[in-house]
Amino acid sequence: GAGVSQSPSNKVTEKGKDVELRCDPISGHTALYWYRQSLGQGLEFLIYFQGNSAPDKSGLPSDRFSAERTGGSVSTLTIQRTQQEDSAVYLCASSPPPGTTQYFGPGTRLTVL
Amino acid sequence: QKEVEQNSGPLSVPEGAIASLNCTYSDRGSQSFFWYRQYSGKSPELIMFIYSNGDKEDGRFTAQLNKASQYVSLLIRDSQPSDSATYLCAANAGGTSYGKLTFGQGTILTVHP
């Protein structure tokens, strides 16, 4: 079956602009996660959604970052007023119940000039 | 203090040798542990997960878990050049945030012919 998909695959933006990154999880997966990976670094947890429960936003680095998940499926990560330090690969993952194996999408490489 | 720490790399082994990757975690509430492999420029892909103390084998891979010592390891037997990648250890959070995974910084493995 189809895996996790993300769009766009690459995004170049100017400092101060807003960007939206999209994630389409594996069908039937109830949990969805966003991570950030800077060059040569490990994965930094950002946020996760489980069903209709309130999301765990504990990893969002600032109030410029927000995410929503509509209809328990597709998710959008929004970064407002982008800064150069926001440049990274943003990875989305989904899992059946939370705490089980997470399957990753191909990522969106964000470059802020 | 990092919550998941991996042995410092890079690790270089000759083809056919056993590669040993180690990981410790600080959250005693963690119940699920995962090893992911990440090729350069690609997203992480699951190798193995382990929940119970002891060994779990899958082909050339063996995961070992010791909850008392808060230690997880991955052994790769008969290492191949195609095993050259970054290996990420992850542990789920204890308590109500059990869906959240914390990743180590990764260990770069190079298998040379």
SSE layout and pairings?
The complex is a heterodimer of chains A (113) and B (113).
Chain A (H helix, E strand, L loop, with lengths): L4 E3 L2 E4 L5 E6 L6 E7 L5 E8 L14 E5 L5 E5 L8 E8 L7 E2 L3 E5 L1
Parallel strand pairs in A: 2-10
Antiparallel strand pairs in A: 1-3, 3-7, 4-5, 4-8, 6-7, 8-9, 8-10
Chain B lengths: L3 E3 L4 E4 L4 E7 L7 E6 L6 E6 L3 E5 L2 E6 L4 E6 L8 E8 L8 E3 L3 E6 L1
Parallel strand pairs in B: 2-11
Antiparallel strand pairs in B: 1-3, 3-8, 4-5, 4-9, 6-7, 7-8, 9-10, 9-11
Structure description:
- The complex is a heterodimer of chains A (113) and B (113).
- The model of chain A has no long low-confidence stretch (mean pLDDT 92).
- Chain A contains no helices and ten strands.
- Chain A is mainly β and 113 residues long.
- Chain A is 0% helix and 47% strand.
- Chain A is globular.
- The model of chain B has no long low-confidence stretch (mean pLDDT 92).
- Chain B is built from no helices and eleven strands.
- Chains A and B meet through strand 4, strand 5 and strand 9 of A and strand 5, strand 9 and strand 10 of B.
Looking at this protein, list some descriptive labels.
heterodimer, A: mainly beta, six-stranded mixed β-sheet, four-stranded antiparallel β-sheet, 0% helix, B: 113 residues, mainly beta, five-stranded antiparallel β-sheet
In short:
The complex is a heterodimer of chains A (113) and B (113). Chain A has strands spanning 5-7, 10-13, 19-24, 31-37, 43-50, 65-69, 75-79, 88-95, 103-104, 108-112.
Mean pLDDT of chain A: 92
Class based on secondary structure composition and strand pairing of chain A: mainly beta
Low-pLDDT stretches of chain B are: none
What's the end-to-end separation of chain B, in Å?
Answer: 37 Å
Q: Can you write the helix and strand succession of chain B as a string?
A: EEEEEEEEEEE
Major protein interface? A-B, 25 and 22 residues
What's the β-strand tally of chain B? Answer: 11
Mean pLDDT over all positions of chain B: 92
Give the amount of beta strand of chain B, in percent. Answer: over 45%
